[in-house]
Amino acid sequence: MPQIIELPERPYVGVRRTITMTTFGLVADRIGEIIGWLAERGTYPAGAPFLRYESIDLAADRLVVQAGIPVPAPVEGEGDRFAAVLPAGRYATVTHHGHPDQLFGAIEALLQWGKEQGLTWDMAERDGAEHWGCRLELFQTDPRVEPDLHKWDTELQFRLA
What we know:
Blueprint lengths: L2 E5 L2 E10 L5 H4 L2 H10 L9 E8 L4 E9 L11 E5 L2 E9 L5 H15 L5 E4 L2 E4 L2 E5 L13 E7 L2
Antiparallel strand pairs: 1-6, 2-4, 2-5, 3-4, 3-8, 3-9, 6-10, 7-8, 9-10
InterPro entries: AraC_E-bd (IPR010499), GyrI-like (IPR029442), Reg_factor_effector_dom_sf (IPR011256)
Protein name: Transcription activator, effector binding
Pfam family, one: GyrI-like
């Protein structure tokens, strides 16, 4: 069942790519690289790795997505890796158990629940695309511990306006 939680600002290091629904690997596959890059600098994740959706235009099959790793304190970026902060605020959240390819149903259910609750998302529609202030998919399962994607837990966190 979805719930609303209050979250503080959270620093992270990320990369950004413009992708399609079939090229998620271009951004998602960078998570391990970012973790290694942080470890080389003596910094370790302060939470679950995530995908942050900035812009979604399904009709044009164009998404602007970040892969990010929370860090305990701000870290200076390098190359295409940048430092940023997830904004504080109220988030609607729910956890999906199962293959990440099945997230669409959980996302639709969360959006519908928000509509039924009269919630307003931190999102604006422009030029046929959704532009999100902070829409996250956090990967709670370590693939080194549980390689079966059907047993993964993915937490959705969508910021409220």
